[in-house]
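Annex B. Sample input.
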Amino acid sequence: MAIKPIEWDALSHAERSALVAAGEHSPLAFTSLWFNITQGDSFRTNWHHHYFDYAARKMLAGDAQNIVVNIPPGGTKTEFWSVHLPVYTMVKHRRVRILNTSYSKSLVDENSERSRSLVKSTEFREFYPFDIEKDKVDDWTLAKDGKRVHQLFSRSSGGQITGVRGGYMGDEYSGHIQADDWDKIDDLFSEAKRRKSHTRLVNTLRSRKAHSGTPFVAIQQRGHIDDSTAFLLSGGMGLKIDLHIKIPALVNQEYIDSLPDGIRERCIKSVCGSEQVDGYWSYWPAKESVHDLIALRTAHPYTFSSQYMQDPDTLDGGIFSADDFQYYGDVDAGADLPLPEKFDYRFITADTAQKTNTWNDWTVFAEWGVFEGRIYRVGMKRGRMDAKTLRREFEAFVKGAWAKNGKANGILRRVYVEDKSSGTGLIQEMEKRLPLKVTPVPRDRDKLTRALDVQGFHAAKLVCLPYDDSQNYEFVCEVASFTADDSHKYDDQTDVMIDALSEVYIKGKRSIRDLL
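Annex B, continued. Sample output.
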């Protein structure tokens, strides 16, 4: 439910006072009101926002000290927890000090700036005339009657967190520490980076509590079976998790029945009147169509299972390890390797599906660059395509890669397409339409044998992916889930990687010893 945009200037002082008083009723009421006033738009409340409110109230009352919240992307978690809740606590409590953290400095600073803009706004100051003292985006303070009363720190998980704290000594609530997306998704595939992240949770963030009773809140979409949520729930941070809220994108009756009293009824009211597919409703029908969510589940099963359903796959296929990928790009931002100054050459591998049905594999084109003994995925196209679309998309992909020929990118040297089913027809039809010849790749050996042939090259960390690329998650999950018994969901992306490794290292007769 959402109230209409509020015309603040058209209201009398008495009407404004009534709204502000209503906003103090709860964190959710406060968020809904001040989002409306400052953004000029309605805050569209769903049942899960009341679940947020339930958790925040428990924290403020001292009934839940340590909380973990898992929520799909786009669930407005940051709006509630990182932007408005800190200001609500400053309105309702005598003295507050909050430490907000996230993997992204720009994100955590943006959240802090929005909170600061709220307390500086004319509408807010009409009723809460705090004085701004320190006025830095990552460290600002509020004063009342000449005395400092509130402070908000913002820090990135990889930056300097020492020297700041959440909360004050005392029995009453006086602030908390919050990790809003502590993990960067790409980093979760590296065991070393996961360990580093967990170590910082224990050695750095935990020590920022003013005292043992200072609340701690972690909010994130799941990304790996060993992500920070798993670490926290296992007791790895040395904290007892008092409340774990898990909100999947698709909800069924069993999930609804498991919700606390009050939240269950709101969920039923929000979702059960909407369309149901395969026993599931969209968790937020007003925002996410159940059909769109089902389509996303089909298209990106690994991403959907973890980030949307909060139930990450184990990725234990046993052939390729997610930890063996390298990432290139901005090293200062977390990439393992810098962007090569110049590729020695580039090539394309393509795996085509027989049909466009949802139960078949996908068609994938991947562009690779070779540099100092490693292969770098430069671009990729993935989709379910009929014959006409396949021809059009393939031609555009190859010509786009060819157009990049030059000193920095090297020359596009080869285009490899599997010589079977739709791939055979594609090879024949594209012969005269492309600027270079298509090389057929025969499928004369089974997929497992081909995978085992290149396993050592992958384990030697010779496959590099663009850091922070949206296609990485599904790619890495699929490759790491590849099994010997063919029980994995899909292998189309794995196929193009196997072909790339085979062409460079096996047919190119390059040994691992020579490369390392």
